[in-house]
Specification:
Helix content: 25-40%
CATH class of the largest domain: Alpha Beta
Number of helices: 12
Largest sheet: 8 strands, mixed
Radius of gyration: 23 Å
Strand content: 15-25%
Structural class: alpha/beta
Length: 459
């Protein structure tokens, strides 16, 4: 029986980010296992034209840059920092394994393994190819990197029934099947459906040939306000906008409208009040392109896809021949109920600072390496559930700002955060000559206490 200090279940972005930091901050032995044969998690199952919706500059693991921090020169995101493609992210995580983890001599990866559980320091794994069950001795902790695992179209089961004879496909099959159809029905109201629509528009499909089934409308974040490094003042300004709106909002709707008025949030249809928020980013030019699609179906959630029709919660729509129905309804990052992150011999990786998944996992690796008391670890890293609604967004902002104040009193954590390449605000402290950054930081400081007091009353 082999023995390790930490067994990390799930070798996706969060599992790798945790392992990378723990490896650098301790002398621990680490074993990563995954159902897939390679590292990268849900990125291995993503649709072929997927891209990060955040800049590459603050995604991945702490020890290895993703991309070259280049500025995009053309297209709808010109002027912004590069966003890696899905293929680039997969290659990057393979490089993390080959260049960082394996050469250390203290980290290993076992693919095609199903985690069966652990008890009394013994974990059980089943090899998915042979069925063989093996036992692993775990000296310290099992790290569950799947607790907030993303649901993606290629692997999720739609919540509605599909006639086997219907012209239906997940988004991942869109490039190979699009040429056989004249019209398209896109199901979903979030990032994945927006990506599908943009892909169709980019490939010459007239907007009038697309029908977009949006059961709910979403608030999107303007990507211009999430640019790092030389443009880090944009992030600080956006955070100041969040705090100022939070300190003065009359209710949740007013909070969102205040953020819309300053350009922080955007919606596709000004006549419809969004009820969904998941932190998804779009550029203004992407939003404008999507607004060309005027045939939006708002009849509730899809209940069934038939050969020539869709049944929805509030009605039915016909589907003409030569129409492909495209599923983009996967949930994305899981809004799992918050549980303590550190419990006895288990760590459940979860969000702490909002909308920073790999930063959070890496931070938890640092805390695990430098704190012994479980209660103290949980004090420094309370779970912060992913948002699904604007009300969730308000609560999520508040939790982030409260915990960041606590970190200010922990010199080692504060230093790690300031130096981490995964930190959204990396380099802000050195930009004393950047007037825009200085003004934004001052505005945030003057408003955040009021927002912390006010937002819980709304949420």
């Amino acid at each position: 029986m082999s023995i390790t200090d930490y067994l990390v279940v799930g070798a996706g972005a969060s599992g790798l980010a945790f392992a990378d930091t723990l490896l650098g901050e301790s002398d621990a032995q680490i074993l990563l296992v995954d159902r897939r044969g390679e590292v990268g998690g849900h990125w291995r199952d993503a649709y072929p034209f997927v891209q990060l919706h955040t800049p590459s500059a603050y995604y991945g693991v702490n020890s290895l840059p993703l991309g070259r921090d280049r500025i995009i020169e053309s297209g709808r995101n010109a002027g912004f920092y590069e966003q890696a493609t899905g293929a680039e992210v997969c290659a990057y995580f393979q490089e993390v394994l080959a260049r960082r983890l394996q050469p250390s001599g203290r980290a290993r990866f076992l693919g095609r393994r199903e985690f069966l559980g652990h008890h009394d320091g013994i974990a059980r794994l089943r090899h998915l190819d042979t069925g063989e069950v093996e036992e692993i001795g775990v000296r310290r902790r099992v790290v569950d990197a799947r607790y907030q695992e993303a649901s993606v179209p290629a692997t999720h089961t739609p919540s509605y029934s599909v006639d086997p004879d219907a012209a239906f496909a997940p988004i991942g099959m869109l490039p190979e099947r699009a040429g056989d159809f004249r019209e398209f029905v896109i199901i979903g109201g979030g990032k994945t459906s927006a990506d599908a629509c943009l892909w169709l528009l980019d490939n010459g499909i007239d907007p009038d040939r697309i029908r977009w089934v949006r059961p709910r409308e979403m608030w999107f974040t303007d990507r211009a306000g999430m640019q790092p490094l030389e443009q880090v003042a944009s992030i600080m300004n956006g955070l100041a906008d969040d705090a100022e709106a939070g300190a003065h909002a009359l209710d949740i709707v007013d909070l969102c409208h205040r953020l819309e008025d300053v350009g922080r949030l955007m919606r596709l249809d000004a006549a419809v009040e969004p009820t969904m928020y998941r932190g998804t980013m779009l550029s203004r030019l992407e939003l404008t392109a999507l607004q060309q699609i005027g045939n939006v179906i708002r009849l509730g959630h899809v209940e069934a896809v038939g050969v020539d029709s869709l049944r929805l919660g509030a009605g039915e729509m016909t589907v003409a021949r030569n129409t492909l129905v495209v599923d983009c309804s996967a949930r994305g990052l899981a809004a799992s109920p918050p549980v303590p992150i550190f419990v006895d011999n288990t760590i459940r990786l979860q969000q702490v600072r909002h909308n920073s998944p790999t930063f959070n996992a890496a931070l938890l690796g640092f805390i695990e390496a430098h704190r012994d008391d479980v209660a103290d670890k949980n004090r420094l890293a309370p779970p912060n559930p992913y948002a699904n609604t604007p009300r969730d967004m308000a609560a999520m902002f508040t939790r982030t700002w409260v915990i960041e104040r606590i970190w200010q009193r922990e010199p080692d954590i504060l230093h790690w955060v300031e130096q981490s390449r995964l930190n959204l605000l990396r380099g802000l402290a050195e930009r004393t000559g950047d007037v825009a950054a200085k003004v934004a930081a001052g505005r945030f400081v003057s408003q955040v206490a009021g927002a912390i007091a006010r937002l819980p009353q709304l949420a």
